[in-house]
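Milestone 3.1: sequence recovery, worked example.
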C-alpha cells in the first residue's frame, strides 16, 4: 500500500494543487520542485501533492525535502510503481482549493506561471485552461503552440475537437499543459484510466473535450518539457508501449458513445490510423516478440474501425502512412 505523509496548515485554503508523480527522476526533479517555490509570493497559495512511484533513487527524498517548504503538502510513496495514470489518480484524491494541475518530474515552469493560470481560470470562469509549451532537447528550446486559433476566449471543448484532418486540441493531450477546475473531479472527468503506462492522456483528453462545458487557451509563462530523457516512455521500448492499443480502443469507445458520434468518430479514426502508423515504425526497434505483439494489437484496433469512416480517412492520409499501414489493413479486409 502507498504510504502518504501530510503536512497541514491553519493558513487559508491553497489556490491551486500541483499533482507531481515521478519515478527515478532524481537527476531532474530538484529543478522541477525548485520552480514550484517561485510560482506565488505566498507559498501557502500552492499545495504540493508529490507521488514517489516506486523510485530506486533519491526522488522521494527530494520530494520530502521540498514538501517542508510549503504550508500545504502531501507526499505519497508507492513501494511498487503504479504507472503515471494511477499515480495521477492518487493525487486527485488530495486536491484542495478550486484549481489543480499536473506536472511531470522532469519538466519545470517559469516563475509565476501558476499565479497567472489561477487568475485566468477564475476570471474566465471556465472548466479548464490550456497553454502552449516549450520543448527542451540538447539545450535547444522550441515553442509548441496549442492548436487552437483563439486566445483568451471561452469556447466549447467539443468544437475544438474538429476538423478531423488537421491538428486540434485532442491532438494536444499533454495533461500538464494547463490548469483545471476542481468541479471536473466532481463530474468524474479528471481521472485517468487506471493502469495505463503509456498514451494515458489520449482517452483523458477526449473525455475532457467531449464532456466538459467550457475551456480556453491562454497565454502564460512557459512550461518547459524536457525531451530525450532516457527513462521517458517516449524513449523506452518495452511492454508498457503496448498500452497504446488499449488507450486507443478506449478513445474509439468514448467517441462512439457520444450523442454526436457521427461528427466525432471520423476524428477518432483519423487519430487511430495516424498514431498506429507511428507506432508501427517505432516498433521496428522493439524485440521481435514485442514487435509481433504490437502489430497484433494494432491489427485488432484497425479491424474494429467503422468501414465507412476508415475508408474516408485513408483516402486523405499521406502515402508514407498508408504504406506503413497497408499490410495490416489488408489483413483485416481494408483497402490501403
Amino acid at each position: 500500500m502507498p504510504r502518504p505523509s501530510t503536512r497541514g496548515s491553519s493558513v487559508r485554503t491553497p489556490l491551486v494543487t500541483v499533482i507531481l508523480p515521478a519515478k527515478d527522476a532524481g537527476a531532474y526533479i530538484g529543478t522541477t520542485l525548485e520552480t514550484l517555490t517561485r510560482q506565488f509570493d505566498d507559498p501557502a497559495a500552492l499545495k504540493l501533492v508529490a507521488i514517489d512511484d516506486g523510485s530506486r533513487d533519491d526522488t522521494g527524498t527530494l520530494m520530502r525535502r521540498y514538501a517542508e517548504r510549503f504550508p500545504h503538502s502531501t507526499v505519497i510513496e508507492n513501494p511498487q510503481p503504479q504507472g503515471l495514470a494511477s499515480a495521477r489518480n492518487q493525487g486527485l484524491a488530495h486536491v484542495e482549493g478550486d484549481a489543480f494541475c499536473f506536472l511531470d518530474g522532469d519538466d519545470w515552469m517559469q516563475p509565476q506561471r501558476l499565479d497567472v493560470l489561477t487568475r485566468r481560470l477564475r476570471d474566465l470562469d471556465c472548466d479548464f485552461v490550456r497553454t502552449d509549451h516549450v520543448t527542451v532537447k540538447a539545450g535547444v528550446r522550441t515553442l509548441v503552440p496549442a492548436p487552437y486559433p483563439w486566445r483568451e476566449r471561452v469556447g466549447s471543448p467539443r468544437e475544438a475537437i474538429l476538423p478531423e484532418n488537421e491538428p486540434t486540441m485532442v491532438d494536444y493531450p499533454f495533461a500538464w499543459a494547463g490548469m483545471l477546475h476542481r468541479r471536473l473531479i466532481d463530474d468524474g472527468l479528471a481521472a485517468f484510466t487506471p493502469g495505463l503506462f503509456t498514451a494515458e492522456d489520449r482517452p483523458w483528453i477526449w473525455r475532457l473535450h467531449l464532456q466538459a462545458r467550457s475551456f480556453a487557451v491562454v497565454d502564460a509563462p512557459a512550461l518547459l518539457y524536457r525531451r530525450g530523457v532516457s527513462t521517458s516512455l517516449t524513449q523506452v521500448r518495452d511492454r508498457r508501449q503496448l498500452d497504446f492499443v488499449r488507450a486507443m480502443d478506449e478513445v474509439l469507445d468514448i467517441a462512439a458513445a457520444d450523442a454526436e458520434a457521427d461528427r466525432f468518430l471520423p476524428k477518432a479514426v483519423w487519430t487511430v490510423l495516424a498514431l498506429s502508423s507511428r507506432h508501427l515504425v517505432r516498433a521496428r526497434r522493439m524485440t521481435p516478440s514485442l514487435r509481433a505483439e504490437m502489430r497484433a494489437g494494432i491489427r485488432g484496433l484497425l479491424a474494429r474501425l467503422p468501414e465507412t469512416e476508415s475508408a474516408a480517412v485513408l483516402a486523405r492520409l499521406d502515402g508514407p502512412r498508408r504504406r506503413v499501414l497497408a499490410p495490416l489493413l489488408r489483413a483485416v479486409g481494408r483497402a490501403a
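The first helix runs from residue 29 to 36. The first strand starts at residue 3 and ends at 7.
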